[in-house]
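Researcher: I'd like a candidate sequence for this fold, 212 residues long. If you have to choose between options at a position, lean toward the conservative one.
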């Protein structure tokens, strides 16, 4: 599903990704790990088409995420570590996601309720003013409701309490078939029961890639 060939990304003289090659295939749940500055975020942003590589390429189901970005983003759900500063109300956000990404509103509400987010009584609240945990729960609900082939979570449990983490793990287990799940994390212990592959990055290179 994701094919990365000889990918290099530089920022001025700094090499953030150094000639990386790897593949992520369906039914793989991958923990992407490494210290700050290892290149994890740069790799994710190249997959999402945010960055133009200096050399090499990224292909998502054979498509270029820069040249064919609209088609590629239909295949991907992404939950960032820091929720975006969205000023829409929850109701407006759900409507926007439903129309722009063809996601069933009722499925978003269903998964939000499964995450124990009291969504109906908060429909008119601004997403921006929600607590970090509430934002994370709603973004997780949207990511699962979208039924994407590829789901990328950047530190997905950072704002979740233990009960919400258990709900998150349970929902992923129920919806993991035929997907690529990619977890960018510093805390392997929190996703170790979900992943079947662990990748360590350092100084822009993949230094370890193991099935587990």
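Model: Candidate sequence:
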């Amino acid at each position: 599903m994701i094919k990365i060939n000889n990918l290099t990304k530089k920022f001025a003289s700094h090499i953030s990704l150094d000639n990386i090659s790897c593949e992520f295939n369906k039914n793989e749940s991958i923990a992407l790990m490494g210290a700050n500055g290892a290149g994890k975020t740069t790799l994710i942003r190249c997959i999402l088409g945010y960055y133009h590589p200096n050399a090499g390429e990224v292909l998502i189901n054979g498509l270029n995420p820069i040249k064919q970005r609209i088609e590629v983003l239909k295949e991907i759900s992404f939950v960032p570590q820091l929720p975006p500063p969205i000023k829409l109300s929850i109701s407006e956000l759900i409507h926007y996601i439903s129309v722009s990404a063809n996601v069933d509103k009722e499925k978003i509400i269903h998964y939000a309720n499964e995450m124990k987010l009291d969504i109906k009584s908060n429909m008119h609240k601004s997403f921006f003013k929600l607590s970090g945990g509430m934002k994370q729960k709603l973004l997780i609900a949207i990511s699962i409701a979208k039924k994407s082939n590829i789901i990328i979570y950047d530190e997905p449990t950072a704002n979740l309490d233990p009960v919400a983490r258990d709900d998150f793990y349970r929902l992923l287990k129920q919806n993991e078939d035929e997907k690529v799940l990619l977890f960018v994390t510093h805390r392997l212990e929190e996703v170790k029961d979900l992943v079947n592959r662990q990748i360590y990055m350092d100084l822009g290179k993949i230094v370890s890639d193991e099935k587990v």
